[in-house]
Design a protein that fits this description.
binds manganese (II) ion; about 220 residues; alpha/beta; binds nickel (II) ion; Metallo-beta-lactamase, Chain A; 7-stranded mixed beta sheet
Length: about 220
């Protein structure tokens, strides 16, 4: 079994005792109920270089001596900030002590944009298998035909998809993504964190219809995968 806790925006902690990972740990500066120093994880998985996804990666990884798993160019940039990294790339999978991870395509950007812009490769999503459950985190992405392939090739128990529009899929495109991904259950994410990405989760649930069970989680809430 595995449990997933939504920590706001695109941050998700997946746990299957004794192991846990966190994806896209942007906690400081958003409404997450969890402080980075309180997290216990084996690994930090990062989909792309934008600040609202890298977030507290370095602090969490250092505090836990955790691996940072990311697309190769992003892993290189994070390694230079003093964390131990495991570089991967889209289409590649690896069996870790904590579980199995595969990188999936995402239609988005990835550069780290601070005082200067650093190229951090292509953005990704993650398939994570822990405790016999397969969880898909789409990352930041628009609707793409690759999702049909991901759904055909994987039996997804729980999916996290962005619905906030503007930077990613909106509600209607996310519902179409669910029809292609065919997860048993789906959680909307990447909405309501900052102006311009508000979303109507009731409209999302209506648009998904019988294709999957829609589970709307408030930050801090947990669901079984
Ligand atoms: Ni982004
Ligand atoms: Mn984002």
């Amino acid at each position: 079994m595995a449990r997933a806790t939504y920590l706001g925006h695109a941050a998700v902690r997946i746990e299957s005792a004794p192991h846990a990972v966190i994806i896209d740990p942007f906690l400081t500066g958003q409404r997450s109920p969890v402080r980075p120093e309180d997290l216990r994880v084996d690994a930090v998985l990062v989909t792309h270089g934008h600040g609202d996804h890298v977030g507290d990666t370095v602090a969490i990884a250092q505090a836990n001596s955790a691996w940072v798993v990311a697309p190769s160019e992003l892993a290189g940039w994070l390694a230079r900030q003093g964390v131990k990294t495991h570089a991967m790339h889209i289409g590649g999978a690896h069996q870790f002590d904590f579980g199995w991870v595969k990188l999936t395509p995402a239609l988005h950007g990835s550069a780290a944009m601070g005082e200067s812009t650093v190229y951090t490769g292509n953005p990704c999503g993650f398939l994570v298998r822990m405790g016999g459950r397969l969880i898909y985190h789409a990352g930041d992405t628009g609707l793409s035909a690759e999702m049909e392939l991901i759904g055909r090739r994987n039996e997804i128990h729980l999916a996290f998809v962005p619905v906030g529009d503007n930077y990613t899929m909106g509600v209607d495109d996310a519902a179409e993504a669910v029809r292609m991904l065919r997860p048993r259950r789906v959680v909307p994410m990447h909405f309501g964190t900052f102006p311009g990405i508000e979303a109507d989760t009731d409209a999302f649930a209506r648009a998904v219809g019988p294709a999957a069970e829609v589970v709307v989680l408030q930050p801090g809430e947990t669901t079984e995968a």
